Amino acid sequence: MTMPKVKVMIALNTSWNLFNFRAGLICSLVAAGYEVVAVAPPDDYSLRLQALGCRFVPLPMDNKGTHPGRDMLLFWRFLQLMRKERPQVYLGYTVKPNVYGSLAAHVLRIPVINNIAGLGAVFMQEGCLSRLVRLMYRVALSRSAKVFFQNHDDRALFVSGKLVSEAVTDRLPGSGIDLTQFVPMPLPNKVPVRYLLIARMLWDKGVGEFVEAARILKKQGLQADFCLLGFMDVQNPTAISRDQMDEWVDEGVIRYLGVSDNVREEIAQADCVVLPSYYREGTPRTLLEAAAMARPIVTTDSVGCREVVDDGINGYLCRPRDSQDLADKMEKIAALSPEERERIGMCGRKKAEREFDEQIVISNYFRAINSILGYAQPALAVSEPIEL
């Protein structure tokens, strides 16, 4: 059966996020004959989105602010854009597209599929802002056709808090991972051992604990290279300042690698990937990438992070905000023989193949979209792998 030309709008808070985390879904939708409209604030990755076969529409967005006037302006922008584009389905990701994009879609009776990819700091505290965000989610998700979560904890929290009807919820394995792009690579297995933390440079991501664990291990005489990779100067109240980073580098405790468009190369040079986050994660993409490339992982026993690691099997879980426990678990990796590290890494690869294949995510989206459109059978069009 020839699928009619259906327009799908997909919105996130950055073009970088769209390109790096949703390229597989976009390409598969395009390959299946959908017209895909990608919506996000413009950045250096906006032009790359068009190479995926979609049409990019820039939409300014104050991602971190809570000013009611700017948020109402964003709702109005979404409303005007959807009136013009008239998509048959709206896919929302990240907080503001999930809230204000969904509200605009509901006004126009456009079916909505949401993806709750981690809840962040606001859900880790009580207060007026937290209550307001919960209220906004409850209203925004009230008429959604499907709401995907990336871990069991977030799904249970929304359902028990009556923010969403359980009947429309489902769980996805994070954003999924392209197992043809992220493949097992031989471990360096040389001195010094290289630990790599990949994340936005935020205190909530456990960067401070990583630095302190590095100090502890260096004092114990461990020959190791402790590396940080990720964006700085982000608009976030928990951002690590450039001065602080320079102080750590000058101290000699860590190396800051900046940012990279080739994260696979950085992971390939690492013996272990570490993420001591106590941020309320969805399912961290960096850990999926590490598992797919057969790297041992050390991460926290916290929401989202623990989804990727079977403790003692493909890595180790440590207590959140506990630098000493983190150092102990990192030291366990260093104490392993090269053969044991290889074995642990391959356990991670097998877990990625079982649970986190990107095609699982894409299949679920096709099933949800086709259910909305009234197709009896879900049709999955898998695009050719895209070199990112």
What topology does this entry show?
Elements: E1 7-11, H1 15-31, E2 35-40, H2 46-50, E3 55-58, H3 68-85, E4 89-93, H4 95-107, E5 112-116, H5 128-140, E6 146-149, H6 152-160, E7 169-171, E8 193-198, H7 207-219, E9 224-229, H8 242-251, E10 255-256, H9 263-268, E11 272-275, H10 285-292, E12 297-300, E13 315-318, H11 323-335, H12 338-355, H13 358-373
Parallel strand pairs: 1-2, 1-4, 2-3, 4-5, 5-6, 6-7, 8-9, 8-11, 9-10, 11-12, 12-13
Helix pairs in contact: 1-13, 3-4, 4-5, 7-11, 10-12
- List the domain count as a whole number: 2
Averaging pLDDT over every residue, what do you get?
A: 90
The profile of the biggest β sheet is: 7 strands, parallel
State the helix count.
Answer: 13
Stated plainly, the CATH topology of the largest domain is called Rossmann fold
Helix fraction by DSSP (H/I, runs of at least 4): 40-55%
Instruction: Give me the count of strands.
Output: 13
Poorly predicted runs: 376-388
- Secondary-structure element sequence? EHEHEHEHEHEHEEHEHEHEHEEHHH
Estimate the global geometry from the Cα principal axes: globular
Architecture (CATH level 2) name of the largest domain:
3-Layer(aba) Sandwich
Strand content: 5-15%
Alpha-carbon distance between the two ends: 32 Å
